[in-house]
Write a structure and sequence with these properties.
This protein is mainly alpha-helical. The chain has one domain. It is built from seven helices and no strands. Helix 4 packs antiparallel against helix 5, helix 4 packs parallel to helix 7 and helix 5 runs antiparallel to helix 7. It is elongated and about 95 Å long. The two termini are 56 Å apart.
Length: 241
């Protein structure tokens, strides 16, 4: 499990690039939908509300209002996840440097390496939880958008004429109900991703603080002959009696 997580951490550039690509694709789709909406509302009211062709046009851009924001947030989540992975990689390298430092000095001068802080586990947990929330919300948003597309493919006259309790009105209620909680749900996922980044930064701070405290202590414990000269960058020769 640990090796798999380490490999995943090294793939952070791929996550960031994919996230940027999703955001750019979302922008392109948004521009296309903007043109379709402009064309729809440029037509007179009677034509657009009675024509099935214009109803299908409306179905396209109205349904995208539901799933496109989640698609953009998915790209943003991948970027933030990549940042978290990069921070985890930096923290891991700092920890390895500390171990290599302790292995390179005499045993009597070594300082105990503390256990990894809880922030390492929290960083991974929050990142994965945030990604799962965003992906789950995106799947629900796609399903809801499909229902919305079916609704708006009807003319406005058909929608106004729908009887109480009809399947059409039930679908409309389902879409509006889902929209209400989906709007806040994506921000919950985003909050968890930011918590992952915060814990990644705190892990780096922990590793730096350990090295800051450990290195002077190691230097104090080293024999005088083993302490490097800061001016000449050489080790002072041992002196005999």
């Amino acid at each position: 499990m640990e090796k798999m997580l380490q490999k995943m951490m090294k793939a952070y550039p791929l996550f960031i690039v994919m996230g940027v690509m999703i955001v750019v694709i979302s922008l392109i789709i948004g521009i296309i939908n903007s043109g379709n909406a402009n064309a729809y509302y440029a037509v007179d009211k009677v034509t657009r509300e009675t024509s099935l062709v214009w109803a299908n046009t409306r179905a396209g851009f109205e349904s995208s209002v539901i799933w496109l924001p989640y698609f953009k947030f998915l790209g943003l989540a991948m970027i933030l996840g990549g940042i978290t992975m990069a921070l985890g990689g930096i923290a891991g390298k700092l920890q390895n440097l500390g171990k290599e430092l302790m292995a390179s000095v005499p045993e009597g001068a070594r300082v105990a390496i503390p256990e990894r802080p809880r922030s390492v586990m929290l960083m991974r947990m929050f990142m994965m939880l945030g990604m799962v929330i965003i992906i789950a919300g995106f799947v629900v948003a796609l399903s809801t958008a499909g229902v919305a597309a079916d609704i708006y493919s009807n003319t406005v006259a058909d929608l106004d004429a729908a009887a109480s309790g009809s399947a059409l009105l039930q679908d409309i209620a389902r879409v509006h109900s889902a929209e209400s909680w989906l709007e806040a749900f994506k921000f919950v996922g985003l909050a968890f991703l930011f918590l992952g980044i915060i814990n990644g930064l705190s892990t780096i701070v922990w590793a730096l603080q350990y090295q800051k405290q450990a290195i002077p202590e190691v230097v104090q414990k080293l024999p005088a002959a083993s302490v490097p000269n800061p001016v000449t960058n050489t080790v002072a020769p041992a002196t005999g009696d």
